Amino acid sequence: MDKQEYLHELNRLRKEFASATVNPGSFECSGCGQCTSCMFCKDCRNCYKCTHCNTCEQCSHSSHSVQCRQCHNCAYCTDSVNCSSSSYLVMCESCVDCTYCFGCVGLGKRDFHILNQAYDRQTYFEITTKLKRALGIR
Predict the structure, then answer these.
(1) 138: confidence class by pLDDT, cuts 50, 70, 90
(2) What value does the mean pLDDT take over residues 47-64?
(3) Helices marked H in 20-109 — which ranges?
(4) Which of 63, 87, 113, 119 has CB atoms 3.0–4.6 Å from 123's, for a disulfide?
(5) Who's near 31: CB < 8 A, 6+ residues apart?
């Protein structure tokens, strides 16, 4: 086997894998592709050990999240990107160890924030209830 044959076969394998819809070790996943060891997920791609997630991509160890990308160890997050060890995030990006944040970017160890501004618990829920309705988010 020479270099050209090797590279040709490698590219063929990559293309074959990219178009595959196998989900090794997964249980009761529907519409998912290349997810490993996930359970009860729907329409996810390239996720690992996620459960009850919907339309997530490249997430791992996450649960009950929707439309998240590259989130790790997150729960109950919606439309968030590159977040980790967080819960109840909505439209957040690059947040770590956060809970109940809405539209926040780059926060660490914060709770009850909207657009990176802190709020008390009651005010947070009053504002986010209105925002979710206006944005069509459940």
Answers:
(1) confident
(2) 98
(3) none
(4) 119
(5) 42, 43, 44
Query: Which residue(s) pair with 89 in the sheet?
Result: 101
Strand, coil or helix: 100: strand
Can you name the residues that pair with 78 across neighbouring β-strands?
66, 90
User: In whole angstroms, what is the distance from residue 113 CA to residue 83 CA?
Assistant: 15
Closest C-alpha to 76, from 53, 44, 55 = 53
> pTM for this one?
0.87
Per-residue pLDDT at 20 exceeds 90: no
DSSP 102: E
Distance of alpha carbon 52 from alpha carbon 132, whole angstroms: 21
The single residue listed with the structure tokens 């069509």 is 136
